[in-house]
Amino acid sequence: MRRAAALGATLAYGSRCARPQVRPWREQRNHFPQGVASGDPDAESVILWTRRPPVAGSAAHRLAVEVARDRDFTDVVATAEAAIAAESDWTCRVLAAGLEPAREYWYRFTDEHGSGSRVGRTVSAPADSDDRPVRFAFVSCQSVTEGAFNAYRRMIYEDERRPRAEQLAFVLHLGDFIYELVWYPEDKPEGRYARKLRDVYRLPNGEKIGDLHVPTTLEDYRTTYRAYLEDPDLQDARARWPFVCVWDNHEFSWQGFQSQQVFDGKVRPAQKLRVAANQAWFEFQPARVSMPGTTSLDRFVAPRVENRPLGERDELGLGLDPDNLAAVRSLKVYRTLRFGRHIDLIITDIHSFRSEQPSGAEPFIPSEFRWAVPQEAIEMLDSGRAYRGGHPPATLRYGGREVPNPAVNAPPQSSLGREQKAWFLDRLRQSKATWKIWGLSQGTLDWRSDYQNLPEGLGPRWPGQGYAMFNGSYFVERGEILDVVRDAKIAGLAIVAGDKHSFWAGRVSKSLPPESFEPLGVEFVTGSISAPGLFESAEYGVPREDPLRALYLHDNPDGTVAPAINMTILHGVRASLTLQKTGDVQQALAQSNPDVAPHLSFADLGGHGYATVRVSADQMETEFVCIPRPIERSERPDGGPLAYRVIHRAKMWGPGEPPRLVAQVVEGDPPLAMKS
Ligand SMILES: [Fe+2]
Predict the structure, then answer these.
(1) Sequential DSSP letters for 138-152
(2) Of the candidates 96, 112, 62, which has an alpha carbon nearest to the alpha carbon of residue 82?
(3) H-type helices in 117-211, by residue range?
(4) 629 CA → ligand 1 middle, Å
(5) What residues pair up with 78 in beta bridges, in sequence order?
(6) 569 CA → ligand 1 middle, Å
(7) Among 111, 83, 104, which Cα is nearest to 27's?
(8) What mean pLDDT value characterizes the chain?
(9) pLDDT tens profile 503-562
(10) 53: CA distance to ligand 1 center in Å?
(11) How far is ligand 1, taken at its centre, from the CA of residue 499, in Å?
(12) Is the pLDDT of residue 12 over 80?
């Protein structure tokens, strides 16, 4: 009971002689408009969730929950009564415990008037010694106003057709469960790209910044979660599987960090809002998370904080202002979950403790080259005083000039902070599971291309000394983690991530050519459920006359465009330029530069959908299930057509051996996305 209380949950303890429900259950879904959910299963318990707000003059204050071994509730194994109240927005968290491992359960809630929730299904985790293979899905980035959640419908459709032993054990949600910023249709009547904005909800206290609206209160965040959870596909998914959730940036604030917001490059203290965001997350996500320093909770305890600048920072950039610390520590979401013998799922929070983005990057941003910055400039700014083993240069050559290094005395960027990093490395070293699955919102794979090889006369000259980088950060921290993996000979490290609105598969290395390439783990990034990605942005943003258009877009003879950016990142600029000239993929691949991306085996910057992982004692199989751009909701039972399905297999590697990935296209045709 103490454990349940520490999670802010009421306990429903299972026993074979549990009495069935006294109150009759009569399903009335409109009294439970956000449905039901479950989360963070272990081998003997799981958190159950619902929300029962006052509806049409009928309020409820007590909910009975029943947990059964069958869909018809003839074999009820646990019951409990939980109080609900306006203070936690009528949400309800119950820890169902005393369960058997690796078993399906069904659950439902009934209020004191006899109105019943829909029936939810959940699954407990296999016991630590259980050798069976485990399959799970991972997802991220669902924007409800910009697209549809067809991916969940397909996930449900496919899972229902799998044999029980092959069904998903859980869904790992890697953040951007909500987008806190929202465009209302009237603010952008032309829509975004080819998407019309949907009028789903309004923030009661929102602030308008440019043409966007952002939350300013707890009620704004709650309103957002309530609206998202009214989506039928998301709601059905939460009713079918336990979810394991961690936030990305948009659960708090787009460019925010710690307890601060950033708009137009200006930092705004927002401790109160950080606490509000954490509270709403706690209320709506059935997660096994704790509020350090507090005990005996049946609801979130919001620390009293003031909005203040961060003040002094520690050596990794964490603001030591007590209000900042209280706000970011109001909820601890980094945690581990175990699924049988083969999975330790280590989940990290890379927003509550991360350092402020380095300032002074402007002189190194080449405006003629979209999305790209010289790799040496990114690494120098990101690594601060730790650059090149603690020898940062005073200046960097850029565009033929020596530009001062603004980060010469800055701390290296950290996503985890000191405390969490120590915890993470300890978990990694201690893990006894076959696969150490590191779940975090943003992965570690660099995206870059060899812009130094652009032919002369093709538009602007590349101002850098080497590669162009599209995405990369936290180099020092990544190096530190990979040093531990290498030195402790840890095998089976697999990173799963989201955030990038695109599919990626690759191997993780501390550095890339011309430095050494030494893969020490595998990494997979899932495409978004609905939010637009970089290819879409290029499709509507790169004009025909742009001399570098071929690097982003390949114009097919039929007038459609293909994501040449995939090829540019996987194979380098000569491949994409050859593709545009010849229209022939084989001729283009003959121009591949093998040094650009030895770490990648797949990249699709236009893909949406989800990914599944299946692990056993000797293999990890990751499947990308890609759907067409989900602009409209599909009414089909399978959620609409499939674009492609690709599987990457990694055989378990031995300590000290490099991992390998083998790709196989199972269905459809991934556009220019395969390495080989
Ligand atoms: Fe996102």
Answers:
(1) EE----TTT---HHH
(2) 62
(3) 150-160
(4) 15
(5) 67
(6) 21
(7) 111
(8) 95
(9) 999 999 999 999 999 999 999 999 999 999 999 999 999 999 999 999 999 999 999 999
(10) 29
(11) 5
(12) no
CA of 179 to the centre of ligand 1 (A): 8
- Residue range 189-214: average pLDDT? 96
- 298-318: burial string, b at 16+ Cβ within 10 Å, e else: bbbebbebebbebeebeebbb
Indicate the residue type of 477: E
Backbone φ and ψ for 536, nearest 5 degrees, come out as: -60, -40
CA of 158 to the centre of ligand 1 (A): 25
Which pLDDT does position 11 carry in this prediction? 76
Tokens read off for 354: 């991360």
Report angle CA 486, 490, 491 to the nearest 5 degrees. Answer: 110
Average pLDDT, stretch 408-414? 95
Give burial (CB, 10 Å; 0-12/13-18/19+) of 279.
buried
Distance 176 CA to ligand 1 centre (A): 5
Residues 121-145 have pLDDT tens digits of 999 999 999 999 999 999 999 999 9
Strand partners, 628: none
The structure tokens listed for 1 are 């009971």
Instruction: Give the Å distance between the CA of 637 and the centre of ligand 1.
Output: 26
β-pairing, 395-398 with 45-51?
A: unpaired
Q: How confident is the model at residue 298 (pLDDT cuts 50, 70, 90)?
A: low
**Can you tell me the mean pLDDT for 666-674?**
98
Cβ atoms of residues 168 and 136 within 8 Å: yes
